[in-house]
Amino acid sequence: MMRTFFFEILSEEIPAKMQKSAINKSKEVIGRILKDIDIHHEEIYASCTTRRLCICVTGVDEEHEKYVSEKRGPRIDAPRSAIDGFLRSNNLTNADLIEDGGYFCVRIEHKKQQFIDQIPDIVSSFVRAMSWPKSMYWYNHQTHTRSWLWVRPVRSVLCLWDSEPVVFNIDGWGITTGNVTYHKGKPFIITSFSQYKNVLKDNFVIVDYNERQQAILDACETEIKGKGVSIKYDASLLDEMTGLVDYPFVVVGDIDKSFMHLPADVLSTLMKVHQKYFSTITHNGEIAPFFIAISNCHTNETVRLGFEKVLRARLSDAAFFYYEDLKSPLEENIKKLDNIVFHEKLGTLGQKVNRLRKLVPEIDRAALLCKLDLVSNMVGEFDVLQGIMGAHYAAKQGETTDVVNAIAEHYKGHNSLPCTSNGARLALADKVDTLVGFFCINIMPTGSKDPFALRRAALGIIRISLAFRHIDLNSMINLALANYSNFLVFDKEQVFKNIVTFIYERLAVYFKEQKSIQHDIIRSVLSFGEMQANKLDIFDLHERAMSIQAYFESGENDFMQLFDRVHGLLSTMSLNANCKMLQNCCIRETLFQDTSEIDAYNALTNVMKFFATIRDSEKHTINYTEAIKSVATLKGVFDVMFDSVQINCEDATIRNNRLALLANLWNLYAQIANFVCFLKSN
Amino acid sequence: MPSFQQLILDLQKFWADYGCVILQPYDMEVGAGTSSPATLLHALGNASWNTAYVQPSRRPSDGRYGKNPNRMQLYYQFQVFLKPAPVDSQDLYLQSLMFIGLDIEQHDIRFVEDDWENPSLGATGIGWEVWCDGMEVTQYTYFQQVGGIDCNVVPVEITYGLERLAMFIQNVDNCFNINWNGKDGPKKYSYKDINLRQEQEFSKYNFELASIDMLFQHFKDHEQECVNLLRAGVVLPAYEQCLKANHIFNLLNARGAISTTERAWYISRVRALAKSCCDAW
What we know:
The complex is a heterodimer.
Chain A: E1 2-11, H1 19-36, E2 44-48, E3 52-61, E4 63-64, E5 67-75, H2 80-89, E6 98-100, E7 103-110, E8 113-114, H3 115-129, E9 139-140, E10 145-146, E11 154-161, E12 164-165, E13 169-170, E14 175-176, E15 180-183, E16 186-189, H4 193-202, H5 209-224, E17 230-231, H6 235-244, E18 249-254, H7 264-275, E19 278-281, E20 287-295, H8 301-327, H9 330-334, E21 341-343, E22 347-348, H10 349-359, H11 364-369, H12 377-381, H13 388-396, H14 401-409, H15 421-440, H16 454-467, H17 473-485, H18 492-515, H19 519-531, H20 538-553, H21 558-572, H22 579-584, H23 595-613, E23 615-616, E24 621-622, H24 624-632, H25 635-644, H26 652-670, H27 676-681
Antiparallel strand pairs in A: 1-3, 1-11, 2-3, 4-8, 5-7, 6-7, 9-10, 11-12, 13-14, 15-16, 17-19, 18-20, 19-20, 21-22, 23-24
Helix pairs in contact in A: 1-3, 5-6, 7-8, 10-15, 10-17, 13-14, 14-15, 15-16, 15-17, 15-18, 16-18, 18-19, 19-20, 20-24, 21-24, 21-26, 23-25, 23-26
Chain B: H1 4-18, E1 21-22, E2 49-58, E3 74-83, H2 89-99, E4 109-113, E5 116-118, E6 123-132, E7 135-146, E8 149-150, E9 156-161, H3 162-170, H4 191-209, H5 212-231, H6 235-254, H7 260-280
Parallel strand pairs in B: 1-2
Antiparallel strand pairs in B: 2-3, 3-9, 4-6, 5-6, 6-7, 7-8, 7-9
Helix pairs in contact in B: 5-6, 5-7, 6-7
C-alpha cells in the first residue's frame, strides 16, 4: 500500500535569505537518501517558513523487498586500519571485499523491511546530510553536550506515517519526535499533512513558500490600489520578505517629503537593504513617496508609525552624510585612498586604482574616480551604496555621462550586468585585478572559505566576458600580472594557469546552474578548454557547450554513436594517443580495398572542406552547430564501411591506411570538444 | 509610560526572578556588555552561569558632540547572559518585553538574521537582531567561539539597547528627550540633563584632545602588563589590562592616529592578549 511520510523540523528563526535554497536542497537530500535505500515514492514536497522546514513524501511503499546495495569503501592502497574499520562498521569480513576502480566495495544485503522501521534512520540521515550556508551548535540538554549542527536551535520534530506518529529520539538534538507542532508556544496535534497546513493557516502561518509569496504580492496590490503607484519589483527582496513573515500583513507608509530630494536609488537601496521595504514608482517611473513593508502581526496605526519613524531616522542620517559629502571635491579625496588598505600584501586602494588605470587606459578618468566613494561618509555608513554614491558624486561635480555610468556599473557582473561597454570594461578590470592579485599571493578559495569573494569575482568575469566579447580578457589578465610583478614575486605562468583552472571551475558551475547544461557536455568542453590552458576563451567554450547541448536536445544521436564507434576502434588498438600522429599520415586512396572505404573517404573530405568554410580564422573558432551537423551526416557511410571491411586487418599498410582515415574523423570531433569525457562517464 | 530607569528596574526584576545574578556594571571602559569578564570569560568552561547587568558602553568613534539624535560615545546596554542557553530563551525574552510594557501582539516583532563577530576578542556568535516595528532593539546571540576557543556549553547573550527601547516605549525621536526618572515638571530629568555635557566633552576629548603619544605609550604598557600578569598566573587582572589596551586602541582610532594598515595590526595584538587570557582562564 502507498502511504505518506511527513516530517517537520521546528527551529528558531531561519534566516530569510536561506529559505528558498533550503527547500530545493532538502528535496534533493531526501531524494538521494530514499534512492540509496531503494525506496519507491511519488512526489517529494518541501517548504520552509520562518521557523519550519517540512518535507512530505507521497506514494511511499509500505514495505520493500529485499535488495542488495553496493557501498564504496577506502582506496585499495588505504592503510589496513581504514579497511578493517570499514569492514567492521558493515559487519563483513575480508572475503566480502570487491575491487572496483581503485576502491574496495562491498555488497550489502538488505532484508525485506517495513518503511516505518526505517524512518528514524532516514530522518537522522537527513538531519546530518542537509547543509546550510552557515550552521551552529547549541546546548543539548539531554546529553549535556554540544548539539548536532543546524541552522538555528531545533525545538521540536514532528514525524508522521500517514496519520500515525513515528516516535524516536534524535540523539544529537536531544529531541523525541511525535505528532505535535507548536506555534507561539501553543501545541497542536497533527494527523496529516493537509490538516497541518490548515491548522497553521488558521493560526496565520502559510506553510507553502510560493503561496506565501503570492499572498504578499496580492496584499501589496490591494493596499496600494488607488494611490496611482506600482511596486518597484525586486525578486531577491521579495524572497527575503517571504522568509521574514509567516503570514503577510502589508503596511503602506509615507516617506517624509523632505527626503524625496535624495537620489532615488539611495532611497530604494536603503529601504531595501536596511528595512526590507519595497519602493513604489509612479506611472512615469519616478520614485513615489510611499513604501510597502510587511509585518508579522495584524497591522495597525502603531506599527505603521513605527515603520515610518525608523525610516525617517535612517534617511536623516543619509541626508546629513549626502550633503556633507557633496561639500568635498572629488580630487581632494583621491589621496585618502592611500590610507585604505585593500589587502596588506596587495597594497592600498590608491595602488589598486593605479593598477586599474593601467588595465583600462582608455577610460582613465572613470578608473581614477571609481573607488572615491569608499572614503565618503555615506558609504562609510551604508556600504551597500558603494558605486551608486560614486556615480552620484561624480555627476554632481560635472563628470561626463560615460564616466558616471562606468563608475555606477563597475561593481556589477555576478548578478546583473553592466549596460555600457565602459562599465563592462571597468567592472571586468576591477575583478581581474582582485582575482589576479589574490592568486599571485596564493590566496584561493578552499571549500566553504572564500573571504575575498573570489568565486563571485570569477562569476562576474564569466558573465561580462560572455556579454561583451570584444573586451580582451587574456591581455587584461596579462597586464594585471605585469602590474603585480612590479612588487610581488611569483611564477607568472603558474599563476596564469591557476587562474584559468579556477575560472573554468566556476564556468562549470555557471553552465550547470544557469544554463542547465548536461554534466557530460560540461566536462567534455572544459576538458577541451584545459588542453589549451595558455589561453582563456570563455565565449568560445560557451558556444561549444550550447551547440552540443542544442544538438542533444534535438533528439539526434548519430553524432555520438559514430564517435563511440570510431573511438572504440582506435582505443582497442591503443591508438587514441597516437591519433595526432595518424592523422598526419597520408591517406592513400590507392590502398582502399572496398568502395565503402572510398565513399567514406570522399564524404569525410567534403566535411573537412566544409569545416574550412565555417571557420573564423581570426578567432580560431568554427560554427559548432554546423560542424556537429555535418559530422553527424557521416554516420551512414562509415557504418556501411564498418560493416564491409575489417579495420584491424592483417596487412599493416592497409590497416594503417584505414586507421588514418578514422584518425582524421576523430580529429574533427577533437576540434569541437574532448568527447572522450563523455565515454568515461557512461 | 515607563521611564528610562524604570525600564532598567523592570528588566532587572524580570531576570532576577528568573534566577539571574544581578551584577553591577563592570567598572572599566568597555565597548559592550560582552567584554565584561562576567560574560566573556564565563562563556568558557562547563559551569552554568546566569547573569544580568547594565553595562555603560563606550564607543569613542561614535561621539557626535551630543548633536546626533541616536548616536553617542557612551550608551547603555542591558546584558543578559544565560549559560547554557535554556530551550525557552526566546519565550523568556518575549515575556520580558511584555514585562516592560511592550504588547508583543500589537507590535511587529521579528528575529532577523544577524551573526556577530568581535575580532578583537576572537569571538563569534550566531543569532539575530530583534526588530520591533522595524527598529532594532536587541541583539540576540548564541556564542560559538570565544578567544578562538569553541564554547561547548553554548550560552545565549541577549543585549537590549536601552535607549532604543526607551525611545520606542516613550515614543520620542531623539534619544536626548528620553524621560530618565519618569517625573514631569521641575522634578523631571531627561537623558539630556544627565548625559549631554558628557557627550560634548568626551567627543572633544576623543576626537581632539586625547594625547596621542601618551596613549601609544599606555597601549604598550598595558600590553606588557597583561603578558606579565598572565605569566604570574592571574587571569582577571591580566584581562583588565587587555580591556584597557583595547579601549586605548579605540581612542587612538577615534583620534585618527591609527592608519588602516596599522588598525589590523593593533586588533591582532589585542586579540592575542584576549586569546591568552581565555586560554589561561
